[in-house]
Amino acid sequence: MTPARKRVTKRAAAKKFPARKAVAKKVAAKTRAPAKTIDLRKERKALYTARPGKPAIVDAGTTAVLALDGEGHPRIAKPRFEDAVAALFSIAYGIKVERRKAGRGPDFLVPNLEAVWWVDGDQPMSASTDPADWRWTVMVAMPDFLKASDLKVATKKAAASADAPLTQKVALRRFKEGKSVQLLHVGPYDKESETIAQMHAFAAANGLKVRGKHHEIYLSDPQRTAPEKLKTILRLGVM
Are residues 104 and 132 in the same domain? Predict the structure, then answer.
């Protein structure tokens, strides 16, 4: 074969068969396992699982959370409780979307709404507490790798939204809880007293003293669930 013929043959082959490295890259891209999506509810299963009538001791540790503070009964709260919740999830999903747009993984699922309740002095509430004296913080747990810059981008994007004044007040915090007693409450929120009494009795029987704030994790959507079927994990810090 003449040199000229060899050159023509090589060029034709190059057009018909891409370079081996390019092929390898394409194959790898097609066969690469999808990026892991973080599900905190699965990774911290013990903190999102509870049974009615079966109090348990858990180590809640310290968690990264998006948080927004308020005061008063939810129906008369300042800011309004439902508005605070809307602002919180607006930022949570905003962070998720902006990270995905920027190609900054891993992705994560936004878990359940949570709230801590107390009165001045970090004392837990009781049946006799005046609702006007309630203090609360709504929260959503976040992956530990989130940074202040993630929150900054999301709040900037939310500046033009209808709930902008509240979205600008959402904070990224470290929520320290530690050793706790938790129990599943099934029923209306205003019927939690019996469940709380069980938790106090369980703590005392195990030589523990209740401390800190009253913590609730909402497993049910109150807009779609009958009051008697609402499921809420209650948690009290102990020492």
Answer: yes
On whether both 18 and 113 belong to a single domain, the answer is: no
pLDDT digits (tens, 9 = 90+) for 63-76: 999 999 999 988 88
What SS3 string covers the chain? Answer: CCHHHHHHHHHHHHHHCCCHHHHHHHHHHHHCCCCCEECHHHHCHHHCCCECCECEEEECCEEEEEEEEEECCCCCCECCHHHHHHHHHHHHHHHHHHHHHCCCCCEECCCCCEEEEEECCCECCCCCCCHHHCEEEEEEEECCCCCHHHHHHHHHHHHHCCCHHHHCCCEEEEEECCEEEEEEEECCHHHCHHHHHHHHHHHHHCCCCEEEEEEEEECCCCCCCCHHHCEEEEEEEEC
In tens, the pLDDT along 103-155 reads 998 999 999 999 999 998 766 666 567 888 899 999 999 999 999 999 999 99
**Containing H/E element for 59?**
strand 56-59
Tell me, yes or no, whether 185 and 80 share the same domain.
Answer: yes
- Domain with 210, as residue range(s), is 38-238
